[in-house]
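Suppose you are handed a protein chain with no further information: no name, no annotation, nothing but its sequence. What can you learn? This example shows the usual starting point.
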Amino acid sequence: MSSTTFRQKVQSGLLWSLVQNWGLRFGGLIVFMFLARVLTPSELGLFAAATTVVALCALFVESGLSEAVVQQPEVNHRQLNSIFAINLGLAMLAVLGLWLFSPMIAAVMKLPELTWVLRISSLGMLISAACFGQNAMYRRKFEYRALAMASLIATLVSGALALAMASAGHGTWSLVAQSLSASALTALILWRHPQWNFSFAFDFPGTLRMVSYGFQRLLTALMDFANTRFIELFFAATLGASALGLYIIGTRIYQALMQTLCTSILDIAHNAFSRLAHDRVALQKAYYAAINVSAAIAVPIFCVTSAVTPELTLVVFGPKWTSAASIMAPMLLLGAVQVLQFYNGIAYNAMGRPDIGLIFITAKTIITLGCLYAAKDQTLNTIVVVFVLSQLSITPISFIVARRIIGISLRTLALNLWPFIFSSTCAVIFVQAARPSVALWTESALAQLVLLTSAGFAIYFVLVGLLARQQAIAVITAFKNRRASV
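A reasonable first move is to predict its three-dimensional structure. Written in structure tokens, the prediction is:
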């Protein structure tokens, strides 16, 4: 593949990955916005507890194999058949295990209603396993357009089903139906135009390298789960389903932005970085370019959104969820840092060094679990702040290691990033200072949200224009080139 063709595939993949993630997350957010006005905190928390347990099991089922298929230079048909068989077998074991042990899990979490919600929700792992090979090959071939369309259709149909069921009073089961129907529709659409067809020709020895890579990624994913999602189980078991429901609302915007602004870009970055891993100079240039785009676009979005959380929570989720704003604000500020830090882990993995990420996530997990234990008797808001600080504990070390492994210059990185970070910080300060005046001018929460958000971004753009005009032009030019090449 020529460098021009590869660049065009990366650019096209980025565009459609953004469409997929933006459409999926914003479409899902709109549906969730209406569901939040119908469902109670305990109903929402019960489903969140089930999905957290299922997500933990899904990590063992996936075992990093999908990423391993993408990461390998060459994958033949027999190897893909073998990986598919492994994934399907693990999914069957996981579903069987959850059906057997759901009553025990429900008793430990003190949520008796959880048993059947957990059992039915676990079937989604079998559906995901059915389209494992298709999803991996679509990603490997940069066919993100098909993935985007499948996700958008599934989101719309499953969302409509969930709204209808919630309006009819089915509570938690409306969310279960939404999850399963979305997975089923995605699988059906991808199998209409398969990128790979299963056969009983296997090469299990040929998959050892992928399995080994996937196992290291699994360990990292497990640590990441303990580091980021254990808090959900912690809230369910200690403060109850209602507290978990409040936390889910408080993190919903954060998760939507992480998906739309991070996941799509990071997925393409892993693909691109993997192809450039043999060329250190090219990898460094790609790293600088990627993190520069995130600093210019994603960081201010996270920061300004964090500044308007009181108005945003009221407008999006309704008056019964206003206390979630104090959870949402620190989580969004965390996202502003994570959107930059994540590139370090992507680069390590692309270079075939997932062990580095595993060491980092292990250290952060130990710190996070220790902090949560120390704060177990505190209020919900205090625990969230402690959680955010624990997540940021190893950020400086991550960039120091990136300098050694990738060869980046921290000085160059700081010179590239500081104008965007400084401008975003000033925007947050301005919004906070302007809030009392805007409240006197209008009592409408929607009007306050629009005015404060507009003012925050206006301050950001003015400062960036003064401090980093050339860098901003470079970012805009990069996006124009992407559109021209697709």
